[in-house]
Amino acid sequence: MRAITRIMPMAIELATEKPDFSVAASVVERRPLMICQPYSQLVGMKRWADLSLYAVVTQNFDRLANEDAVIMLRILDHIHVVDRIFRHHLQGLPHTFQAPRSEKVPELQSLANGAREVDDWYASYVGNLPHSDFDQSVDFVFTNGKPMRMRRGEIILHVCLHGAYHRGNAGLVLQKNGIAPHDDRLTDFLETVAQSASSTRPSISSS
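^ that's the sequence the OP posted. Answer follows.
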């Protein structure tokens, strides 16, 4: 357990380090971002995938080895804390996090409830954000004290991609314990949306 305690914070810190794209940024023109639909799809997929992940983890949590159960909670907490931090940035509000994780790892049910609430917030936020605001810059400070400026659209993209990366980590923990991981592909999401739309479409009966 001591080894895991040492490894996990280090792994999360490495995962959150920001690579230097200054050279690429100097030669690539920052064109206006595509708006509305791609962001709505990404946030919709994140909400769907998070629900699927938490469902699988909740149903099989007792099957995880003790060390892997701790790792799983740390992964889920890290995703959730980062989601909350960037929500504060989008709202222009301060937060109290000193690191991209909680000081004390929450219980699984608390994380599941919190993830659902935050995902619903992002879906509502993207759905109501004026098109011009996706390109609006937001200034904030990372938990390590480094100042940063990102467009609102870039923040939303980061939150979605960050969550996808760490859901992959969670899937590996599940597979290690002989548990089939959650669905987490864009194609799966689009198929689910299409099936849902088809099932709710009124049927046309012949007279």
